[in-house]
């Protein structure tokens, strides 16, 4: 079976997504990663529409791309003009991109009502624009916009448009579900009819699919098209794109290679998918989706006790693929539905010697469950979990002890608040009292604790608190409700998370903070001793 | 064609998602909303596994559900025991839920390798458990776990398990793609074969589908099953669930009703889908996904220019359905027209006379946009929105003014924290200074403000703070991150919500509190005057 070519449009259609915009340098760094992983086409933007995209093509022309063809995007010429005079088409030529994507209309609604054009002139626009690009020696990908909507309304005309494109020498014709409203069954039917029709006219052009996710079906529609003859899939990394996004290549690629037996990028590059996904979300400054298929942080996370037990015997019992294939890994979460086997597995993972028989493990599991009923959630707080397991097994060595703290927040009329914390801790019998300010009470407490500990332990500068979350466990008690505070911390080579629960938000924050510093200090001490 | 029954498992399988946990009260409030919208089954949890789920069934038994059958979930009896002695099955009976879901094994890997059971005993477990439930008069939904994986490995045995379930009187058999690794084409093929096989044995049991999203195909797999004969769809609101989540009912329902012509919930309830999606994400304290199909904030967002122009001529040019059908609305991004008309619309809704010309409305829209960029979210805080509009139009009458407050939280060793607040306010030129304690700093501040205001305004006892939520807007700054505090308050006949944003959580809480009391006092005054 023929290879499926991967056509990435993260830089063009992906950047139509709300809150997404890349600089031309960022575009280049994404393009390089896409090339590395073995993508076949990289659509770099619309050089006729803005300076940033034009600049990207300048930068790209100087780079050597190994696998990918850089592709410039633009629409057919304007009605009743000459293609050679069209500034937008000229910009495509000037971009020096070896491939160009020409988008044209398939739907009579757009041709007649929106553009107020004629059907015949629309066909001429398609023909002329493609001919011009072929005359300039470009590979031409023709994007048939709104093809499926157009086909539903006037199948004959929609077919005429792609026939015109194929006859004019387009190397590929992409059927686009621009509004994202088509179901996979209809994608299959229409694809099959178009493929047959073009073959019957002796126009065996390469066919492709461009799907949007407005019905949550962009991946399904893409693979349905592949099954019915498409050999190009257009999509974006992480499915970024306008409205509900485009088809997510990060999901489609492993489905093609691992589940459908269709070659796309080389198999040995699949393990880079997770990093690529992460790189693009970081560049776009969007929070990575934990639940993203294949590459998300939760994609191979297991919660239930029974599940964990089963996975130890046979991973495929609860994993549809080996997570390492796509660069991901298994995670075991602690949860109120878990049991003894979770505790044993987790202790091993965290390097805590339980040294307990079945009965003790059961007792620990029960105590964890009680805490979780109170609002603790250890599946997201490995740091606190480790400390808790050490406490249960009497292996916990406190590296500092709280004597007292006092946090004060003051506000005068409409002036901003000020926050101060005073803290007294003891380390090996030596007391230290100090104070600090902060952006709010928790920040002040964090700063004061850090300052007090610095006296005894060097090296805390490398530790940073990178995430802070507050969840009111049951808001119905109003301001007296219980809150859960979650803190994520990191140093040069590690990342850990801790948790605290209390009716008092400062106390909950204190517990999470104290665990975080305790975890870091214990780690430092182990390294020194080891 | 037969109606498709919607089986919601947000409360059970959905809460297996990382970072998701509901209190039993929250479970009940979600269940009520699900019932309202016309869902047919609400799986409330696993009463045999934990106290919280058991409590939910107690609460649910006291409620009147109009449309939905409350369903309790549990597994088949343990191997080589009596069903009547099984504590887990007993818990299902004790739950008093009118319907029960019994999950059993279909895959020989699980039966033999994981459970170390025999094939025959597994069949007996299925038979006995279902028979017991039928003897107790329950409707029985049989969940065939790992059905598709099992069928791939040993089709004959997988079929035997569901045949056993159907013969024992199960009212419905659900084929589960537990690991989420199956493609829609295979779902269709297997579904068709199972349906034929059961029909040939004269066992015309109702069939259903339970899909997971590990390949981004849960929605596609669900509708593929419906197309091949499934008339129950199990899924969760927003697709919450373990790993990559379950099938998203918020997407599936409008596809069934609007695109496949299959009745599920009543058509006139579709417009509640957006609010339901939002309610569940707020209750789970998860950020709503802007790109969520149908209901996301971006689902019908159009960037300015050609698209907007086209939409003014014919909305279907770029919208696959009318957004109002699912309770959503079109958004035009970066368009001054959009912002301004929103403000006018909202002011009218809140009863604020803007009395401003176009230019002023534009200025207000811009200022609101600036605040929203800083983290305010006025769509969930009508109380604060009203006060803000009054401030902008110089109609705001402050009914108290803050002179100063000081909040102190103290902790000594492992004693619980204590929190005190001192506050000084002015009402009509009269100062009042007072102090109060509380469960945490915000509670202390709330109590102190209430005490100080009581001196000037009677009737505040009727006002209660019923919900309090904290969201860290960008956690990356650690403990110095900005937080948004949301407060919901009510009195005998009204409910209102207010919001505050600051890097200091106490200051953010203060703004939300102050708005809430201001809103209440203004309302009281209007009533007295009116």
UniProtKB/TrEMBL annotation, chains A, B:
Domain of life assignment: Bacteria
Major enzyme class: transferase
Pathway stated in the Swiss-Prot or TrEMBL entry: Amino-acid biosynthesis; L-isoleucine biosynthesis; 2-oxobutanoate from pyruvate: step 1/3
Keyword annotations from UniProtKB, A to Z: Acyltransferase, Amino-acid biosynthesis, Branched-chain amino acid biosynthesis, Isoleucine biosynthesis, Transferase
Gene3D superfamilies, per the entry: 1.10.238.260, 3.30.160.270, Aldolase class I (3.20.20.70)
EC number of this enzyme: 2.3.3.21
Pfam families in the record: HCS_D2, HMGL-like, LeuA_dimer
Domain Pyruvate carboxyltransferase: residue ranges: 4-271
Transmembrane segments: none
GO BP field: isoleucine biosynthetic process; L-leucine biosynthetic process
A single GO molecular function term of this UniProt record: (R)-citramalate synthase activity
InterPro entries registered for this protein in UniProt: 2-isopropylmalate_synth_dimer, AIPM/Hcit_synth_CS, Aldolase_TIM, Citramal_synthase, LeuA/HCS_post-cat, LeuA_allosteric_dom_sf, PYR_CT
Catalytic activity: pyruvate + acetyl-CoA + H2O = (3R)-citramalate + CoA + H(+)
Family statement drawn from the similarity comment of this UniProt entry: Belongs to the alpha-IPM synthase/homocitrate synthase family.
Protein name: Citramalate synthase
Source organism per UniProt: Desulfatitalea alkaliphila
Lineage: Bacteria, Pseudomonadati, Thermodesulfobacteriota, Desulfobacteria, Desulfobacterales
